[in-house]
Design goal:
The complex is a heterodimer of chains A (about 160) and B (about 80).
Chain A lengths: L1 H10 L4 H4 L4 H28 L8 E5 L8 E5 L6 E6 L5 E5 L10 E3 L4 E4 L4 E4 L5 E3 L8 E7 L2 E8 L1
Chain B lengths: L2 H35 L6 H32 L4
The chains are: A alpha+beta (about 160), B mainly alpha (about 80).
Chain lengths: ~160, ~80
């Protein structure tokens, strides 16, 4: 058995230590190749960002202005039917609207009128209901603001501020 | 110190530098993706330019050190 193993090694003289050996020059070439790949990815991201811009946001009616009581809120979708948003009116009557998608892990935020915040129930994150900035929990980015205008008796959404 | 040993140290230093540049590029890719998702398009072109510059720098360093190594093999003393 030992002789067969020796013969096998003689017939197939694979030196695994040499086979797995990588010279510094090879490593430097490999890293530079990776550098080129990363640069290409960055250029591709820039190309996608610059050419794939969405057209001007639509104007969409949200609700009648007097239909939302102070401290109340209303849910709507903007700019597409796949983008949930929330409009809140504080006790003083000021109206603000934000995306309802938490910037942490995309749960839906809900309005807590007592604290004047938009709270995410998933990980206890919360955002200011005035400016959408994160005030507690894991989120680090603000909620996108929906631009709201009053036209006649109606509130309409006219854009998104990221 | 012999020239060959100096060349070895230089090669190692350049290798570490290239690795550092690649790490910075990884960070740039992450930042660009984050900006793309957040629709902050103004960030995308500077990150692409910076990443390209780092790639050129990496390539330049590799070319320099390879040519240095070749000169060393041709003319330098054996260590």
């Amino acid at each position: 058995m030992a002789d067969e193993r020796a013969r096998w090694r003689e017939d197939f003289p694979v030196r695994w230590d040499e086979d797995n050996y990588m010279t510094r020059r090879e490593l430097a070439k490999f890293l530079t190749l990776g550098s080129g790949l990363l640069a290409s990815i960055n250029v591709l991201i820039a190309f996608i960002g610059l050419t794939g811009r969405t057209p001007a946001p639509p104007v969409r009616r949200i609700a009648a202005a007097d239909a939302i009581a102070p401290g109340g809120s209303v849910l709507f979708r903007y700019p597409t039917d796949d983008d949930p948003c929330i409009l809140v009116r504080d006790a003083a009557g000021r109206i603000d609207a934000f995306s309802q998608v938490c910037t942490h892990l995309s749960c839906a935020v809900v309005h807590r009128p007592g604290d004047d915040v938009l709270a995410c129930p998933c990980h206890k994150g919360s955002f200011s209901a005035r400016d959408g900035l994160p005030v507690a929990g894991p989120p680090t980015r603000r909620l996108p603001r929906i631009v709201i205008e009053q036209r006649g008796a109606d509130l309409v959404a006219t854009g998104v501020e990221v | 110190m012999e020239t060959r040993q100096q060349g070895s140290i230089l090669f190692s230093a350049v290798l570490v530098l290239i690795a550092l540049l690649v790490v910075i590029q990884l960070w740039l890719v992450a930042a660009a993706l984050d900006a793309l998702v957040a629709r902050q398009f103004v960030v995308l072109v500077p990150t692409a330019i910076a990443s390209g510059a780092l790639f050129v720098l990496s390539g330049g360093l590799l070319g320099y050190v390879v040519s240095f190594d070749a000169r060393l093999r041709q003319w330098g003393p054996r260590g």
